[in-house]
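Example 148.
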Amino acid sequence: NCFTYFCRQYNSIEPWLKQKKPVTLGKEQFLQSIKDRDKLDGLYECILCACCSTSCPSYWWNSDKFLGPAAIMQSYRWIIDSRDDFAKERLKKLKDAHSVFRCHSILNCTNCCPKELNPAKAIALTRKLVAGVSKKPKSQMKVTGLHK
Ligand code: SF4
Ligand code: SF4
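Predicted structure in complex with iron/sulfur cluster:
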């Protein structure tokens, strides 16, 4: 059913922090600058209710293929995270006919979000990154040792 696709699509964007450097758990902390942290506002609050995806006409006709606004917005949430090192790989995965380019800016998604988030805007920003029109800003993250 539709929700099976929704969960599969969310899972496919690998919604977790991925780093390239080996991490010693409990030994380091990754300090995000306030400016970098601000970029996650309006993205992390998503409750995965699926209202946006199920109100999207592109999703009605292609829910088995099109990632849909919720999954694309969550992909963007990790792409833009200053602590995540896999933006390039994440963007590469979205460079197909069933991701950002399937959205036709109809805005149903943004109009129906109960959390007043803006998936259409997140898709537009992701599309710019996928197309190479804009670049992920340089991370200001500081890695520090933990004080015992
Ligand atoms: S409608 Fe809003 S809260 Fe619900 S899944 Fe979409 S973006 Fe997330
Ligand atoms: S803006 Fe894109 S994702 Fe949102 S409802 Fe329209 S086509 Fe769907």
